[in-house]
Amino acid sequence: MPTRPPPSKRRAADVAYDVIEALISTLKLPPGSPIVEAELVEISQLGRTPVREALLRMVAIGLIDQQPRRGLVVSNIDLAEHLDVIQTRRVLERLIAACAARRATAAQRQEILRRAERMVLAAEGGQLDDYMRADHELDQINHQASQNYSAVQCVLPLIVKCRRFWYAYQHEGEIKEGARHHLTLAQGIASANEKAAMQGADHLMDYLEKFARRIINN
After folding, report:
1. Residues 85, 181: Cα–Cα separation, whole Å
2. pLDDT of 68-117, one tens digit each?
3. What DSSP state is assigned to residue 193?
4. What is the DSSP letter of 91?
5. Greater model confidence, 171 or 18
6. Contact predicate 101/197, CB 8 Å
7. 125: left (phi > 0), else alpha (psi -120 to 50), else beta?
8. Where among 54, 74, 94 does a domain terminate?
9. Are 48 and 85 members of one domain?
10. Number of domains in the chain
11. Distance (Å, rounded) from C-alpha 29 to C-alpha 72?
12. Which of 8, 54, 105, 209 has minimal Cβ neighbours within 10 Å of its Cβ?
């Protein structure tokens, strides 16, 4: 049986989390930056309580460190650990892809394919921000289609870490290749082919691992 879907009405802490995560993953808050709660309250237009809850979640997943005397700071990117992030994400992405291929509605299959095609167009135009935005949207609809809430909750922190890694080192990446792998994954899901969807997820993770190893070995 499919696991329960996330609630339709988003909590203020979830909204705050998304705002802060975007600042960290796009390096607007770079590694080592101090976390100033008042500034985040102003940026998010939310209260201190949801912002604090979001920050605690980020401490738990390693995006933010709690240091003696310095307080909260954005964590550094650990290159060696990033390979473990990708290996763990691979297992979850295969599961999510298989579930999405099996459970997605007809409308979701069309939307997944459309978002992947948008990534290809952005990559061909060299539009990194549009590419990353379409990537994020593809993840969202894919996760909804999978109806596997447990797997999605586990993979989300790993995706954030991969997104931050990409923004930090994207000058070494080839987004056209990444877009092609996303399209292959989307095509597998859209055609309700679990095996093809899982292979697409594997190829995407192969691409991310190759990218990471190139950075580490430089």
Report:
1. 19
2. 888 999 999 988 899 999 999 999 999 999 999 999 999 999 999 999 99
3. -
4. H
5. 18
6. yes
7. alpha
8. 74
9. no
10. 2
11. 12
12. 8
